[in-house]
Design brief:
The complex is a heterotrimer of chains A (299), B (326) and C (274).
Chain A (H helix, E strand, L loop, with lengths): L1 H13 L4 E10 L7 E11 L4 E6 L5 H8 L7 E6 L2 E2 L5 H7 L3 E4 L13 H10 L8 H11 L18 H13 L5 E5 L7 H18 L2 E6 L2 H7 L2 E6 L2 E7 H6 L4 H13 L20 H8 L1
Parallel strand pairs in A: 3-8, 3-9, 6-7, 7-8
Antiparallel strand pairs in A: 1-2, 1-4, 4-5, 9-10
Helix pairs in contact in A: 1-11, 4-5, 4-6
Chain B lengths: L1 H28 L4 H6 L6 H10 L6 H13 L5 E2 L4 E2 H36 L4 H15 L2 H15 L17 H39 L2 H8 L4 H23 L1 H15 L4 H11 L2 H29 L2 H4 L6
Chain C lengths: L1 H7 L3 H23 L30 H37 L1 H16 L2 H12 L3 H28 L2 H8 L4 H13 L1 H23 L10 H8 L7 H29 L6
Helix pairs in contact in C: 1-11, 2-3, 2-11, 3-4, 3-6, 3-9, 3-11, 4-6, 5-6, 6-8, 6-9, 7-8, 9-10, 9-11, 10-11
Classes of the chains: A alpha/beta (299), B mainly alpha (326), C mainly alpha (274).
The complex binds adenosine-5'-triphosphate and magnesium ion.
Magnesium ion binds next to α2 of chain A.
């Protein structure tokens, strides 16, 4: 256990983070209600090829952090750095090109696609924005569909979102996120919209992507088991604040905070069996392929 | 609450100010000389035109002109009607009283009947009665009220000869006391019947919607669960709560009600605002037309303001949530 | 959209009102060919009752009322369609900007629309038309200027709903400029209620034009239903046909557009789909 752990430790200190969030806060003012501090002084970073999970109960501010990271919501204070550059200080034009390095996958696959665009039209839109212009966008679209195992891709490319199942749509959402060749994917509960059988498949897919393409993930989930399957590090949020963060296994095995213990107990009560490991070797979810940290370091 | 009233009051004042400015702008979009808009197309003495030019600073800059205009309006001076040979404000106010004689009974009647109908309809959601009522209220909203008025005249006055077709009192008879009152009543029947139908359409529509919403609310479900009969539920809980939106409808639709009254008056030669309105159109008596607009708009703002406040008193949620139902 | 249309045409109200509107359009387009009588031609037979020669009678100048009604159908449809189009364009633009940009722009635009909504439309329209003079184009402009707030409010709400959907966020993350997201992703998915409202606005516009003409605010070189009613007002005691037919035409047309708008709104509202 200790060997990969130290390796990862090195990664997080040596490599430059893809995403760094520094002391961001957000307060919502609803008319007639008291001001509500949804995110309070949150800092975290994600390194190349790494998967960091944010866990916490509903309403703890996870999605708000994700939206601020994605520059979909402006923090009241604090900074967000994407590959070392502050998103908040960029010109709109610069932001438009730079943000392609970071793509979202949302929770609800039914709201993730414009119902008036075919799969091809949606993918084309995403590909066309890529930094490397594609001479043959159609070929790229088919390749993306294959990558997320929508095969044969020709069967899917002309369909409309409502002609896809929830699981297929979520795969398509991942394909779209991959289209601009991002370095980071921010996935907000990508599994909770899908039912159990599909969850394992999508989990598998995410693991493969992480291993093969060296894409970093910021994974938002309230499910400790999912975090355990995918993430090297976890950040635990409660009432808008980070209450605990560290190596996944460490946090899982010896949580320091009572809140984290409760979160763990909640899942473990329901399901004491090991997480639904998608890969045949049970060790791999918590210990991703050894090549990963090395790759990250060399990048 | 006090803050809410102050806020609404402030907004109302802003709107009234805006309306005066709109009025000012309108007098300047007239092709040609702005004095035309201030005087009307009626032949008037040149001395009066010169005086108007001076009073309203028409040879000065636009902001200065606006200032003069505002000062005049603020002093209650809405101009002089050469057609009516008197000042616009008292002329309109006198006519407004006559219009109210027509409007108030009709509004009252329409509210009572409308709510009763809506209650019946809401209790049988989805029934054919309900569909029929919806269609009826839609028909009421689609009928040109002046045409309805013409039909009533042709049927009850011309064909059947039951009721007078025109005016507020019989001109040749010099009734006094009770006889005068009865004569007025006879003249009132047709026009007020006409606009009652006009008002009924909108009252039914809105009351029905709010009633349906009400019937699905928790307190009604609780009352039902407690074993109150359907009638008791409707009377005790729904009706009382649904009256609020009905009042709101009337308050927020004052302008619409006024329009109905004006158009009805023109057919029945009722000597209220409507009659004045039509003759002013005919004689191009712009001071009167813009005076009517100014007063009507102000009355609408006032009605909205009062309704806002009533609403907030009855339902405190309003203050924090939306300010006004769209 | 398609299921909505199917729903719409399984609704009897939708079918009937749609048919009436079609019929009206037919009357306006093919009427002059099917009934080739000049609506402006004067004759000595003034205020003649309906007969074989003049199926709906003649007016005070001896003009054929049926021909005038066909002419009026043209005018009403023209005013209704143009005014609804102009209103919808203005309303959707304002609503889109308000709902999409939000913040102070939204507050300012909504205040402005509230201001316009408070003003008594009809009286203001009369005042404006009296001042600038009659004319169809002017009437259409006045209607559009006074009716856009309704559309703006509806469009704004829908734009706000759609623009917080995930696919809009996804588009933003692709670096697509805001205005392209607005017209490519948001407006196409938010426009349906505004279109249903357009039918109601058409009804209002036709009614308003008829009211203005009735009060004598139509230019003298056109014949419209409201104008015929205005003539009828002087002959209520003698020429019933002047009032009955043209009033009926306004009523049925306005009712049809109102019903059509309701049916459309119903069909587009997924909650009402049973
Ligand atoms: N646009 C907004 N306006 C007002 N309040 C908001 C807004 N967005 C989020 N909130 C509030 O902020 C808090 C945090 O919301 P957030 O969506 O970040 O939680 P979450 O951790 O993602 O929860 P979940 O697991 O349910 O998705 C919640 O209480 C929510 O009501
Ligand atoms: Mg969330």
């Amino acid at each position: 256990m200790s060997a990969p752990e130290t390796a990862r430790e090195e990664t997080s200190q040596a490599g430059k983070p893809v995403l760094e969030i520094r002391n961001i806060s957000k307060t919502f003012h609803l008319p007639g209600a008291e001001a509500f501090k949804a995110v309070d002084d949150v800092s975290l970073s994600v390194h190349p090829g790494e998967c960091v999970a944010i866990v916490g109960e509903s309403g703890s501010g996870k999605s708000t952090v994700a939206r601020m990271a994605l520059s979909l919501l402006r923090p009241d204070s604090g900074q967000v750095f994407l590959e070392g550059r502050s998103l908040l200080d960029m010109s709109p034009r610069e932001l438009r090109t730079r943000r392609l390095a970071m793509q979202p996958v949302f929770q609800d696959p039914s709201a993730s696609f414009n119902p008036r665009r075919s799969v091809w039209s949606s993918l084309r839109q995403a590909i066309a924005q890529g930094t490397t212009p594609e001479p043959d966008m159609r070929a790229r679209a088919l390749e993306l569909l294959s990558q997320v195992e929508l095969r044969p891709p020709e069967n899917y490319v002309e369909r409309y979102p409502h002609e896809l199942s929830g699981g297929q749509r979520q795969r398509l959402a991942i394909a779209r996120a991959l289209a601009p060749r991002p370095r980071l994917i921010i996935a907000d509960e990508p599994l909770s919209g899908a039912d159990v059988s599909i969850r394992a498949q999508i989990l598998n897919l995410l693991l493969d992507l992480q291993a093969q393409q060296n894409i970093a993930f910021l994974l938002i989930t309230h499910d400790m088991l999912v975090a355990r399957a995918l993430a090297q590090r976890v950040v635990v949020m409660h009432h808008g604040r980070i209450v605990e963060q560290g190596e996944t296994e460490q946090v899982m095995q010896s949580p320091r905070e009572a809140y984290t213990q409760r979160l763990l107990a909640a899942v473990l009560d329901v399901d004491l069996a090991p997480p639904p490991t998608p890969t045949p070797t049970p060790a791999s979810p918590s210990a991703p392929p050894d090549s990963l940290p090395n790759k990250a370091r060399s990048a | 609450m006090r803050y809410y009233i102050a806020q609404r009051l402030f907004w109302s004042v802003v709107i009234v100010f805006g309306i005066v400015v709109v009025n000012f702008v309108l007098t300047r979009i007239v092709p040609g000389d702005p004095t035309t808009a201030l005087v009307g197309e009626f032949p008037v003495p040149q001395a009066y035109i010169d005086q108007i030019r001076h009073d309203f600073g028409l040879d000065q800059s636009i902001p200065a002109q606006l200032y003069y205009y505002l000062v005049h309006v603020a002093q209650g001076d809405l101009g002089f009607s050469f057609v009516g040979r008197q000042n616009v404000l008292p002329l309109i106010l006198r006519r407004a009283g006559v219009t109210l004689i027509l409007m108030l009974p009709s509004l009252t009647l329409a509210s009572i009947i409308g709510v009763l109908i809506a209650v019946r309809a809401a209790r049988r959601a989805g029934s054919s009665l309900n569909t029929f009522l919806t269609a009826l209220s839609l028909a009421g909203a689609s009928v040109p009220v002046f045409w309805l008025a013409q039909m009533l005249v042709m049927l009850f006055a011309v064909r059947l000869g039951w009721l007078p077709a025109q005016g507020m009192v019989s001109v040749r008879a010099n009734y006094t006391g009770l006889a005068y009152f009865l004569d007025l009543l006879r003249h009132l029947i047709l026009p007020s019947f006409c606009i009652t139908i006009f008002y009924l359409a909108i009252v039914v529509r809105v009351a029905r919607t709010s009633m349906l919403e009400m019937l699905h609310q928790d307190f009604v479900l609780t009352a039902r669960a407690k074993g109150l009969s359907e009638n008791q539920v409707v009377v005790r809980h729904v009706l009382r709560n649904a009256l609020i939106p009905v009042i709101t409808v009337i308050g927020y639709n004052f302008g619409y009600s006024l329009t109905g009254a004006i158009l009805t008056e023109t057919v029945f030669a009722w000597p209220g605002i409507g009659g004045l309105f039509v003759s002013s159109i005919h004689y191009q008596d712009f001071p009167v037309l813009s005076g009517i607009f100014l007063l009507a708009a102000t009355a609408v703002v006032a009605a909205n303001f009062i309704t806002d406040i009533l609403y907030a008193v009855v339902d405190p949620r309003v203050r924090v949530a939306t300010l006004k139902p769209a | 959209m398609y299921p909505a249309l199917r729903r719409m045409f399984t609704n009897p109200v939708g079918i009937v009102s749609g048919a009436v509107v079609l019929l009206l359009a037919l009357a306006a387009v093919a009427g002059p060919t099917l009934y080739p009588v000049d609506p402006f031609a004067l004759s000595v037979e003034v205020n003649a009752a309906p007969s074989w020669l003049h199926p709906l009678g003649t007016d005070d100048l001896g003009r054929d009322v049926l021909a005038g009604m066909i002419e009026g159908a043209k005018i009403s449809l023209f005013v209704g369609i143009s005014a609804a189009l102009a209103t919808t364009v203005i309303g959707v633009l304002v609503g889109a900007v308000a709902g999409y940009v939000g913040g102070r722009v939204d507050a300012a635009l909504m205040r402005l629309s509230e201001f316009f909504q408070v003003m008594p439309t009809f009286i203001l329209a009369v005042l404006i038309v009296s001042l600038i003079g009659p004319g169809l184009t002017r009437v259409i402009i006045v209607i559009a200027v006074l009716s856009w707030p309704q559309t703006a409010r509806v469009a704004r709400g829908e734009i706000m709903r759609v623009s917080q959907l995930d696919y809009v966020d996804a588009a933003r993350c692709m670096g697509i400029p805001g205005w392209r997201i607005l017209y490519g992703e948001v407006i196409p998915n938010a426009i349906a209620p505004a279109l249903a409202l357009a039918s109601l606005i058409m009804a209002q516009a036709i009614l308003l034009e008829a009211s203005l003409s009735f009060l004598g605010l139509a230019s003298p070189d056109i014949i419209s239903w409201g104008r015929i009613l205005s003539v009828a007002q002087q002959y209520l005691f003698t020429a019933w046909w002047l009032s009955v037919f043209s009033g009926m035409a306004i009523f049925i047309t306005v009712l049809a557009f109102n019903l059509l708008g309701d049916a459309l709104a119903d069909a587009l509202n997924p909650r009402h789909a049973h």
